[in-house]
Amino acid sequence: KGDSGLSEINLVKRQVSTLEGQLRALQSSFSKYKQVITFPNGRIVGEKIFMTSGYEGNFESLKQRCSQAGGQLASPRNAAENTAIHQIVALYNKPVFIGINDIQTEGRFKYLNGENIVYSNWEPREPNNDKGAEDCVEVYTSGKWNDKSCGERRLIVCEF
Ligand code: 289
Ligand code: CA
Questions:
Q1: Ligand 2 centroid vs 144 CA: distance in angstroms?
Q2: Fewest CB within 10 A of the end CB: N or C in the chain?
């Protein structure tokens, strides 16, 4: 009984060490896959992946494309996420629309799920609702935000 107990412990130890090796291999292959999928058009921040396909369209069409792909229009909730989007904007040298608007109530900017925004990065003197016609939000090549007409065409960045 004593002997068989010992060999059982040794068996479990061997299994744990095999699993540790497999976990290390998976971690290293996962980090390589992350590098590959984000090259050169994507960025990872925490659990989120930001990605552009290079497509340009109006706000509704960008929104639709992101959700069709299983994500949503990039919706920065903090400075790190905004920086990731800004880097993609800088790479393409094209501003993007983000998943924030005040379509429902003028001056109250919300995410696509209806939640009030928790972070913003407005350009000075924005949002100004120019000509009473600006309900969507673009990220300039500077990384700063401007409210803009939703009918304009902008680069797509989705988050997954
Ligand atoms: O149509 C007006 C927009 O092109 C932008 O013009 C100026 O840059 C500023 O007034 C912006 O706020 C405005 O969105
Ligand atoms: Ca504006």
A1: 11
A2: N
Ligand that lies nearest to the alpha carbon of residue 127, given by its number in the listed order:
2
Q: Ligand 2 is a single-atom ion; what residues have CB below 5 A from it?
A: 128, 130, 134, 146-147
Q: What residue numbers bound the domain in which 75 lies?
A: 42-159
Q: Are residues 109 and 47 in the same domain?
A: yes
Name the pLDDT band for 23 (thresholds 50, 70, 90). Answer: very high
Closest CA to 96 of 88, 84, 107: 88
Q: Which two tokens stand for residue 154?
A: 């902008």
CATH at 145: 3.10.100.10
Which H or E run includes 59? helix 59-68
Residue 150 near residue 61, CB atoms below 8 Å: no
Q: What is the complex's ipTM, to 2 decimals?
A: 0.96
Counting every residue, how long is the chain?
160
Ligand 1 pocket test, pick from 129, 130, 144, 149 with the greatest ligand atom count within 8 Å of Cβ, gives 130
Same domain, 75 and 124: yes
Kindly report, residue by residue over 25-70, the tens digit of the pLDDT: 999 999 999 999 999 999 999 999 999 999 999 999 999 999 999 9
